[in-house]
């Protein structure tokens, strides 16, 4: 029964997403094809195979963090700040997919780094989650002294949920909107996709070559990811208990 419910839920998600996203995909494909033929028609000196090679080169360069800016290229995704953020996304298993090692040595190191880093990250998240729970329990215990036993537990759980929502899901999109130029909805979407470790990679902070980011931005976001994942893990655990 549980397996059937699971498959039914996934099937429902697939059907809704197909209905919502398929028309936009078809429209984008038609628009891209039209732009491709217009470019070749308006610039007869361009050859189809040569243009295709250039496009492929741009795509491969973008995956490595390099973008064209006029007659120059932009670098910076593999500086210390960018590398630190990549390390966090690797051991938290977010794996945005927009950036990955391109050298053999880098891939081997990334494999070994994640092998030991993922367990370390899980232990840390568990400890942070236990500290959060302990803080809620202590506050509830103090309120119990006023003979509000049932109300105290409910009140503290509600406060913890609301505080977490504010700190990790509702307020961060305002920062992302300011630094990235995203809408609030895009910032909220990025926040949940990141903290839940889904990590599609369609929205990633600090990747716009046209923006100048402060040095603390990625470091603060890394801390937000750690504590936010611990909080969301507690919420998901509560949902699991309800389902079970």
TrEMBL record:
GO cellular component annotations of the record: plasma membrane
Domain Potassium channel: 74-132, 166-243
A UniProt-annotated Pfam family: Ion_trans_2
Keywords, comma-separated and alphabetical: Ion channel, Ion transport, Membrane, Potassium, Potassium channel, Potassium transport, Signal, Transmembrane, Transmembrane helix, Transport
Glycan-bearing residues: 71
Keyword Ion transport among UniProt keywords: yes
Source domain of life: Eukaryota
Membrane topology type: Multi-pass membrane protein
Localization per record: Membrane
GO terms under biological process: stabilization of membrane potential
Record-linked InterPro entries: 2pore_dom_K_chnl (IPR003280), 2pore_dom_K_chnl_TASK (IPR003092), K_chnl_dom (IPR013099)
Membrane-spanning segments: 80-99, 105-125, 152-176, 188-208, 220-243
Signal sequence residues: 1-19
Molecular function via GO: outward rectifier potassium channel activity; potassium ion leak channel activity
Similarity field: Belongs to the two pore domain potassium channel (TC 1.A.1.8) family.
The protein's name in its UniProt record: KCNKH protein
